[in-house]
Amino acid sequence: MPNRQDYDAQSSRHSEQSFFRFNRVAKVPLGVDDDDSYLDMSDETAHLKPRQQHWANKMQFVLACIGYSVGLGNVWRFPYMCYKSGGGVFLVPYCIILFICSIPLLFMELSVGQYTGRGPIGALGQLCPLFKGAGLASVVVSFLMSTYYSVIIGYSIYYFFTSFKTEMPWIDCNNRWNTPDCWVPQRKGINASAPDTSRTPSEEFFENKVLQISGGLEYPGMMRWELFACLICAWLMVYFATWKSIKSSAKVRYFTATFPFVLIIILMARAVTLDGAAEGLRFFFRPKWSELKNANVWINAASQNFNSLGITFGSMISFASYNKYNNNILRDTVAVSAVNMITSLLVGIFAFSTLGNLALEQNTNVRDVIGDGPGMIFVVYPQAMAKMPYAQLWAVMFFFMLLCLGLNSQFAIVEVVVTSIQDGFPRWIKRHLGYHEIVVLFVCVISCLFGMPNIIQGGIYYFQLMDHYAASVTIMFLAFCQMIAIAWFYGTGRLSKNVKQMTGKAPSFYFRSCWLVLGPCLLFAIWVLSLINYHEPTYHNGRYTYPDWAYGIGWMFASFSLICIPGYAVINFLRSSGDTFWERIRNTLRPNIYECKICGEHHCEHDFPEQEQFMLTQELATVYKPANPHLLHLGQKYGYNAMQASAAHAEAGAPSGQ
Predict the structure, then answer these.
(1) Full-model pTM
(2) Which helix (H) or strand (E) segment is 545 a member of?
(3) Is 308 labeled as ligand-binding?
(4) Which annotated residues bind Na(+) (predicted)?
(5) Which of 211, 420, 533, 596 is placed for a possible disulfide with 119 were both Cys, Cβ 3.0 to 4.6 Å?
(6) 74 marked as binding residue
(7) Distance CA 401, CA 399 (A)
(8) Is 416 part of any known ligand binding site?
(9) In sequence order, which residues have a C-beta less than 8 Å from that of residue 319 and are 6 or more positions away?
(10) Any binding-site annotation on 405?
(11) Under CATH, what is the fold of the domain 45-575?
């Protein structure tokens, strides 16, 4: 009987392992509740296999992509970048880059993420190990962005609670932080003209009250403790919305990705009826063609494309890695791109209509009505809210919407960093941290600490410096390396074959030509132009110029990501096998994709033979019954047991003397 119990216990453990392995390999819709992505890491190929945690349904993935697209990348960054780049002229390179680079690159990232089932580091490391550093570089950029995107969420929290006051403090000039330059038409009379140095109440509230801005980066000032508290609240919300990975963040997005659309449409409809809105729209849609030779316009257009769609930051690769293998990638690409373009257009109309109204009231032109800093939305949008009926209600709803948008963007960024850490160091994470929640907490705490310099009195200068160098200057080079690695070295033929295996249809000539020729050439041309005709960033329409050492800090931020590409290439080259230089190069360019030992496919059901025993056990469960019913109390189960049967066979065939 003890032997019988041992066999039963061993068989039970074997069956449970078979069940989990069967579910991991077979395409059983596990849902997000089955988080067994990092089980059985003893297998030497486990880090190459597709992840087994999936979106619970198709809508969660679409909302994740749309939520990122309609996040801060559009509502905050698009009007800021467009205004900073001269208005209508920005739309020309923006549209060119969108159709030649951004949409094809989005399709490429979704394909790679869905096929490999890994984040940016794991995916690029499988397709082209020599360029694995490009995946790491995108994660570094995402991490740097997370440090200051959370500050925007903190600003939103501050404005949200301030909106509950009986009198909103940004609608007049009767507050202690206002200066003699503060001016509103209602205070001076309808026929009065604004002075040349006039400033809006919302601008003075943001700079003098919220930021308590210093004279420059060289004057850091004190910590803004109110903003510090808001920043802590922002990171707490991010943590508790992402600590269960897509299981928790996907549910939050049902609201945060849909609510902003309704509010944006209502606000846009109101903004276009304001006096002076036509002048603002003229600035938005009428380009000054002479500005096209300015390299910063092209850099800003490229960075805005990639920021709004989430490409080259690893977000879309990470999102797609949770997809089912046969998900329709083309449909997702078209949907996300269309929503992104429509949202950018709506937000642009809303923002520049309001700017036109402000320019009329301040007796100036649209180009000079406010500063071009990253806090532009906290100057323009509050002024628009003040002109709405029931202004307080609309202000509360708007800043709650901005909070939702910020959380959408931050969910994606944190998910990229966490996913990449787990994909890149699965054994170390399992040994030292253990739980997914601990990894998320670690990332959130480190990002929060790195974001502290943004909330001192001189933090807004640091904010713009990091945004320019970490998320604008380097992003085109990362996109170029990613396209080269996948389209040239891995090959458009291989990628097309992978897409056809997943969806049943190969990519069109448009995608293949953009991957192979048009996209890399355009990105390389913009990169060269940016080096030839480069202008250092300034603040407040050039009124503040950074000191030389500040530009050194900016390039240091840029180097954090750029150094990953050649650094990782050298490491992989030294680790590769081969007697000669070219043999090592060929080995590092060879794909390292997991393939089944039986059929050679990346996704199949052959690699774990235990699943066949499990299926047979289930089919024969009603056929084989235990001879002694009382054995059920000792662990005996219904069904055929392969290990028990083989043991019985061995006992039957053994000599009687043994």
Answers:
(1) 0.77
(2) strand 544-545
(3) yes
(4) 67, 70, 74, 308, 340, 405, 409
(5) 420
(6) yes
(7) 5
(8) no
(9) 61, 64, 65, 68, 110, 113, 310, 412, 415
(10) yes
(11) Amino acid/polyamine transporter I (1.20.1740)
